[in-house]
Write a structure and sequence with these properties.
This protein is an alpha+beta fold. The protein has a single domain, classed as Immunoglobulin-like (Sandwich), CATH 2.60.40. It contains 1 helix and 7 strands.
Length: 104
């Protein structure tokens, strides 16, 4: 019984690790000079270079679109009013960062 429980536990842990192997990561910060920088990547250490970045209004209108650079960074002028930063690496790999949560 103990062996069976150990095998099931090991299988569940391995499955959880595999399913989480490519989780997108994105954090943004205010540079204090009216610009915002976002840094991205993936939980398995993969680069986010080339990942699409969008700055949207709360209703989803696109204000600006670009891509993460070779250092997996994206810097843009801070919009006036409410905005959302969208890290879009494809279906299941999207992150929304509300502008009001971005601090120095």
């Amino acid at each position: 019984m103990l062996l069976k429980t150990s095998v099931v536990t090991a299988t569940l842990l391995l499955t959880a690790t595999i399913s989480q192997a490519h989780t997108p990561l994105c954090s943004c910060f205010d540079n204090g000079d009216e610009t915002i920088t976002c840094e991205g990547g993936f939980s398995d250490g993969s680069s986010a270079s080339g990942v699409t970045m969008r700055i949207e209004t709360p209703d989803g209108s696109v204000q600006l679109e670009g891509k993460m650079n070779e250092d997996s960074e994206f810097t843009f002028d801070k919009p006036k009013g409410d905005y959302v930063v969208m890290f879009d690496a494809g279906e299941g790999h999207k992150i929304k960062v509300p502008g009001k949560e971005i601090v120095e």
